[in-house]
Specification:
Radius of gyration: 19 Å
EC number: 4.2.1.47
Family: Belongs to the NAD(P)-dependent epimerase/dehydratase family. GDP-mannose 4,6-dehydratase subfamily.
Strand order of the largest sheet: 3-2-1-4-5-6-11
Function: Catalyzes the conversion of GDP-D-mannose to GDP-4-dehydro-6-deoxy-D-mannose.
Order of helices and strands: EHEHEHEHHEHEEHEEEHEEHEHH
Largest sheet: 7 strands, parallel
CATH architecture of the largest domain: 3-Layer(aba) Sandwich
Keywords: Lyase, NADP
Distance between the termini: 34 Å
CATH class of the largest domain: Alpha Beta
Number of helices: 11
Cofactor: NADP(+)
Bound molecules: NADPH dihydro-nicotinamide-adenine-dinucleotide phosphate, guanosine-5'-diphosphate-rhamnose
């Protein structure tokens, strides 16, 4: 068992919760940043779902407040820092571009700078994203593919990515950027398309609603399982050299076909329920993403274990169980 300490921002989110569980199982002491935006509104359902609420140490810290990171890093001197906090919903980033820039972009600089001052021996992971490729020209995206962000979210993440690279090259800090393609799970937020679909399919199956309204169902994504992907984050920080990695499955599927998997699993006909609604189209779309995980396979020994079909079925079943109170 490990005697290491890890600090995770975004511990109440999908990836933060799965990563905390993985590290606790490895014997880490896990400290998480908890943004206390109101006295009542602390979002603990994912930690509860995984049975780890009470097993992690939670410290108040907002991405906009560097002083909270200096305090926490000085206090715990973590071996590993995982920066997962973000305003992570692409659609919202057009409505709140500046907040997204501050939390998702400058927030990463806040924690990098706090690390440089207070815990320079720590190893750092930045949650970068395939959205940085945006309007790419290459059929498969790898670590050497040029970036072309297509949303305020992607632009903010690109700044955070280059700050991570620059802190490594300028100061010799152990900082890694994981360029992760979409990953989902029963712990995914309801605003993202997979969970929106699986929750709606569960509700339709249970007679609680009749329609599912979506935007661009021709968009293609490379979808993996969050539980597999947090393992790759940890592996990056166990290497001799800090580096950047694409984490993906190497398969791309349309939103339409992903949706079909969910409906077919429950014996429902998608055409009877799906409505295309202009409200859910974006000002600019990323039409297709397909990652090349060859470097991660070679250097980290990592591959995606869960297929899209297995994951969507797990999500639909979890939503049916949740909605029927099981
Ligand atoms: P979530 O949206 O589920 O989690 C985001 C986390 O950030 C939550 O814990 C949230 O807290 C926290 N947060 C938001 N604003 C602040 C703030 N101002 N200060 C402190 N914490 C804040 O994201 P995921 O778990 O899905 O993703 C994790 C990271 O990986 C994100 O940075 C995301 O952008 C990135 N990413 C995700 C991918 C995916 O497919 N899931 C793919 C590639 C990158 P609260 O719960 O209280 O709101
Ligand atoms: P994405 O995920 O934007 O790729 O970002 P999302 O699930 O929101 O959208 C995927 C694709 O589905 C299309 N779509 C819809 N999306 C949503 N949310 N709701 C709809 O009704 C709908 N209809 C069609 C979208 O247009 C898009 O093409 C996620 C986030 O987790 C980011 O934080 C992360 O960086 C990237 O994945 C990789």
């Amino acid at each position: 068992m490990s005697s290491k300490t890890a600090f995770i921002t975004g511990i109440t989110g999908q990836d933060g919760a799965y990563l905390a569980k993985l590290l606790l199982d490895k014997g880490y002491k896990v400290v998480g940043a908890m943004p206390r935006r109101s006295s009542s509104g602390v979002n603990m359902w994912r930690l509860d779902w995984l049975g780890i609420n009470g097993k992690v140490i939670l410290e108040d810290a907002d991405m906009l407040d560097m002083s909270s990171f200096v305090r926490i890093l000085t206090k715990y001197q973590p071996d590993e820092i995982y920066n997962l906090a973000a305003q992570s919903f692409v659609q919202t980033s057009w409505d709140q571009p500046l907040l997204t820039g501050q939390v998702t972009g400058l927030g990463a600089a806040n924690i990098l700078e706090a690390m440089r001052l207070a815990a320079p021996k720590a190893r750092f992971y930045q949650a970068s994203t395939s959205e940085m490729y945006g309007l790419i020209q290459e059929p498969m995206q790898s670590e050497t593919t040029p970036f072309y962000p297509r949303s305020p979210y992607a632009a903010a993440k690109l700044y955070a990515h280059w700050m991570t690279v620059n802190y490594r090259e300028s100061f010799g800090l152990f900082t890694c950027s994981g360029i992760l393609f979409n990953h989902e799970s029963p712990l995914r937020g309801l605003e993202f398309v997979t969970r929106k679909v699986t929750d709606a399919v569960a509700r339709i199956k249970l007679g609680m609603q009749n329609e599912l309204r979506l935007g661009n169902i021709d968009a293609k994504r490379d979808w993996g399982h969050a539980q597999d992907y947090v393992e790759a984050m940890w592996l990056m920080l166990q290497q001799e050299e800090a580096d950047d990695y694409v984490i993906a499955t190497g398969r791309t599927v349309t939103v339409r076909d992903m949706c079909k998997i969910a409906f077919e699993h429950t014996g429902l006909n998608m055409e009877d329920h799906l409505i295309i609604d202009p409200e859910f189209f974006r000002p600019a779309e990323v039409d297709v993403l397909l990652g090349n995980p060859a470097k991660a396979e070679k250097n980290l020994g990592w591959t995606a274990k869960t297929s899209l079909e297995e994951m969507i079925i797990e999500m639909v079943d979890a939503d049916i169980a949740r909605l029927s109170g099981k």
